[in-house]
Amino acid sequence: MSTAELPTNAPLAPQPLDIEEELKESYLNYAMSVIISRALPDVRDGLKPSQRRILVAMRDLGLNPGSSTSKCAGIVGETMKRYHPHGDNSIYPTLARMAQWWNMRHLLITGQGNFGSIHGLPPAAMRYTEAKLSPVAAEMLEDIGYDTVDFQPNYDEKYQEPRVLPGKFPNLLVNGSGGIAVGMATSIPPHNLGEVCDALVAYIDDPAIELDDIMDVLPAPDFPTGGVICGRMGVKEAYRSGRGRVVLRATSSIEELKDGRSQIVFSDIPYQLTKEPLFKKLAELVNNGRITGVSDIVDESDRKQPVRIVVKLKKAEDPNVILNQLYEFSPLQDTFSVIMLALVDGRPKTLPIKEFLRLFVEHRINVIRRRTRFLLRQAKQRAHIVEGLLIALHHIDEIIRVIRSSANPAEARVRLMSIEVSAQILQRALNDPDAKASTSLTRMQADAILAMQLQRLTGLEADKLAQEYLALKTDIDRYEVILGDEQVILGLIRDDLLELKSKYANPRRSQISDEELGDYDKEALIREEYMVVTVTHDGYIKRQPPSTYRAQGRGGRGITAANTRDGDFLEHMFVALTHDYLLFFTDHGKVFWLKVYDLPMATRTSGGRAIVNLLQVSDGEKITGIVPVRKFREDESLMMVTRRGTVKKTDLTAFKRPLGRGIIALGLDEGDQLIGVARTRAGDHVVLSTREGMAVRFDESDVRSMGRPAHGVRGINLEEGDEVIGMIVANGQEDPASLLTVCENGYGKRTLLSEYRSQNRGGKGLIDIKTSDRNGRVVAIAKVTDADEVMITTTGGILIRTRVGDTRPIGRNTQGVRLIRLDEGDAVSSLAKLPEEELGGDPETALVLEAADGEPLDTPADGLSKGPHILDDGVAEADAQDHIDADEAEPEA
């Protein structure tokens, strides 16, 4: 059978398709459907299709602001029936959101019943809730019946739905919008209605207005849940380019209680955050030890105050530190990503704020122009009919005769249209010599005459018709003026905006702070307190509060400072404030930079973290000097000493900008190593001590300042086999402190520094201690006073904390006394001095400490902690901070 012989209803043969092209086309169709018909708002009314259909369906049901509410189930059903056939699971949540005060800056729907809560509870079922249009939603729909917008067939072409609402209310900026489409998203923050109206008025008055002038009246978003907007730079960037980031914080206040404790009260929460996940996060942060010092978190919210979250603090805790930690680690501070993306002529476009204003004004110009044309048409049609009725009243006898003599309405219509009309008749009826009339009645006029009631023949009704005709002519003239001058239309828009502001605007809820937040100031989150920093021989480092260790009498057995790995032992220990800079000097003569709070917090018995994970040290490179620094002062230097007795002085400011990979601290001869570093000022004396018990003291001015790569000069002349083990700095010749010398077998002695006379640099020095078989060789030295406490550690991981005052001063050339009792095979490895604050005095007494920069530090004023920070399980607080790479971080100049 040929093709021509196939029956007309025979199925066509399948046609081959290119699968790649078919997938491309299908995906693009799907993507455009999501973008245009689901996810993105129209720039003119700020609504997505689902929102617009709900509002139109409620208007169809007569649920205006002045009416009673109706069941949401009925609204959802009407919306689904007429416009949105995608099921109630997509319609009801959208309806409920438009009635939630914490999501909408101005509600579009007035709800009655349970529409959810800011606590995170969902709305009740739609069969229980009721709703109607809010007053501002009515402003959105006003004039929709005046041919102000285009309509399109609904999904089954039984009804017509508007493509956009007239939008007298600037909804897109006031209520904002959010949505995720295919390959793009929108996130427009809500604003204050009064400020938006002022910005639109300013734009109408001056279309060339600059962004700064717009921000004078529209300074920032205004979120329905309030909060504090941190800084204006992110807002300005978003308004300028259409994309930006706004940092939003919960509004807080600190309240002092009668028992001396403090509590932090949050009176709002960031936009689009509910309380239930917030409380879970806060509890997690406290229980995991990320935030310490919090004793309880209470929700004191009620009907009068929807949000009142109270964070109760432990005694003596600094509320400002806890507050900053809450902002950093919890959702109480959030970043709102601004993406000003909306549909413009059916296409997604990212818009700056001025473009939003322009497009809304253009939309309103078009709406008013179309409304005026519609009203003009109606006015002209009505004037034409009234004109015919007035003519009929003056030809009433003729009209009655024609109608009575006609066989049917059609004949009567034709005969009426053939009556000759004189313009003078209309002029006399209106008492208007300028009135004009056609020479005969039109079909429309004839039909109106045939439908006219007998009561219109009275004189009173005739006067009413004349007045109506004159009013219609006035309206027609006004409409023609509006259509003939765009400035008149702009004036109407201006008046509408000012009226909206007076009727619906309310005070701003979100405060604006001048504090700019980009990368958060990490130091504001860290409590300033002393930390014991320990470094093992194999390069494991940690920090912990000094009060972890209790004071013991001289000669005790001590407690375990760390569970070191096999073959490892504690080699360095010192005390520094958490905010101090740490300059790490290696035996290879390089220096690295970190802050104390970047070191891992660990328990007393833990081994710590490998230092190679914090610093970019080379294989085999060891840390031999760690100097805490608060400020890089120009009047200070670093004095460095090598194992072979070479010393070098370099200005402290030369180390203020080290790289992540480290920088050269000094040049070293082959086989030599850097073993000690200390800060010095003019007038200081330097004391070097050797392994064989020798010591030399000289003025720091004997060493001239050199650049970082220099090798230095001779500091002490060593005997064969001897080497330098340590260096201290004395405050001039009259320094009343003592030199504490500790030997490897646990013995040591304390000698006044005044017994070490000043010599020339490079000499052999004086005898410091006898290195007998009992004492062993010298391990470490420290500068101490009677009030000091020291920690002595051993290669076996044993530590003892003892008071220096328990060891009386003795002469230089002596063997000393036992400082720590050692197990067989154990040996002393290091010595560290504790600060005065940890001596257990009256916590209410202001102590004067020496800070890392050598200046007096008043403890209470600086807010230093008085005790350990222990979580509920008794484990020391874990360090919550990530390591700052030295390439990115910059120390304070």
Automatic annotation (TrEMBL):
Spell out the Gene3D superfamilies in the cross-references. Answer: 3.30.1360.40, DNA gyrase/topoisomerase IV, subunit A, C-terminal, Topoisomerase II, domain 5, Topoisomerase, domain 3
The enzyme's main class, written as a single word, is: isomerase
The UniProt annotation puts the region (Disordered) at 853-893
Any idea where the Topo IIA-type catalytic domain is?
Answer: 40-525
The record's subcellular locations are:
Cytoplasm
**Motif span (GyrA-box)?**
552-558
Which catalytic reaction applies to this protein? ATP-dependent breakage, passage and rejoining of double-stranded DNA
Q: What CDD domains does this protein map onto?
A: TOP4c
SUPFAM superfamilies in the cross-refs: GyrA/ParC C-terminal domain-like, Type II DNA topoisomerase
Please state the protein's primary subcellular location.
Answer: cytoplasm
Instruction: Mention one GO molecular function.
Output: DNA topoisomerase type II (double strand cut, ATP-hydrolyzing) activity
Residues of the active site are 128
Matching Pfam families: DNA_gyraseA_C, DNA_topoisoIV
Q: Does the keyword Cytoplasm apply?
A: yes
Q: What is its EC number?
A: 5.6.2.2
Misc. comment: Few gyrases are as efficient as E.coli at forming negative supercoils. Not all organisms have 2 type II topoisomerases; in organisms with a single type II topoisomerase this enzyme also has to decatenate newly replicated chromosomes.
Q: Which PANTHER family match?
A: DNA GYRASE SUBUNIT A, CHLOROPLASTIC_MITOCHONDRIAL, DNA GYRASE/TOPOISOMERASE SUBUNIT A
Q: Its family?
A: Belongs to the type II topoisomerase GyrA/ParC subunit family.
Its job: A type II topoisomerase that negatively supercoils closed circular double-stranded (ds) DNA in an ATP-dependent manner to modulate DNA topology and maintain chromosomes in an underwound state. Negative supercoiling favors strand separation, and DNA replication, transcription, recombination and repair, all of which involve strand separation. Also able to catalyze the interconversion of other topological isomers of dsDNA rings, including catenanes and knotted rings. Type II topoisomerases break and join 2 DNA strands simultaneously in an ATP-dependent manner.
Q: How does it assemble?
A: Heterotetramer, composed of two GyrA and two GyrB chains. In the heterotetramer, GyrA contains the active site tyrosine that forms a transient covalent intermediate with DNA, while GyrB binds cofactors and catalyzes ATP hydrolysis.
Looking up HAMAP family in the UniProt record yields: GyrA
- Recorded protein name is DNA gyrase subunit A
Organism encoding this protein: Paludisphaera mucosa
Which taxonomic lineage is given here?
Bacteria, Pseudomonadati, Planctomycetota, Planctomycetia, Isosphaerales
